[in-house]
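Our consortium's second objective concerns turning raw sequence data into structural hypotheses that experimental partners can test. To show how far this objective has progressed, the report includes one record in full. It was chosen at random from the queue rather than selected for favorable results. The single chain below, 183 residues long, was entered without modification.
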Amino acid sequence: MASHVALLHSIVLSPGRRVVMAELRAMAEALGFSNPRTLVSTGNLVFDADADADANGDCGAVGEIEAALEAGFRRHFGRPVDSLVRSADDWRRLAAGNPFATSDAGHVTVRVMRAPLPQAAFERLCAVAAPGLRLALVDGDPWIDFSGAPDETRLAGHLTTKKLGIGTLRNANTVNGLCAMLG
């Protein structure tokens, strides 16, 4: 068994109705994943599975886990959701790679990508970033030090699946919390 982290892109089922984390854990168990646990109510899931990514980091088994979670979510909750999965080692590497670790973790965000963000797309983000924002691309995931509230900048409107590909935002507190859950 190997530990994994899954991030669900959106857990809003309808106006005023969100996925209850106990239901998400039950869905993961029904899919055959062991020891599912959640962090805050935003679609962060840690669990154990038989599969793991191959040595090249290709999606392989991780892609299969993502597909299983997405199909299970659609069946259980009646709507599609993008799921991003990282092995425990990949998650620890993501957390350790935070280029803004000395900043207020509540102001630092990473957009965890299914496929690495191309350099050209990252440069477009840099071009629209307001003065005072710091951006870095680490292993294909863009990190942003907002130095304030993300909704106070127009950059937030450019951090979408339509513009960047499948991915989801998590702040550094969540990244570190999930890392701690992995042990």
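The partners drew two points from this record. The chain has six helices and ten strands. The helical segments are 21-30, 60-77, 88-96, 119-128, 161-164, 172-182. Both points have been shared with the crystallography group to help prioritize constructs.
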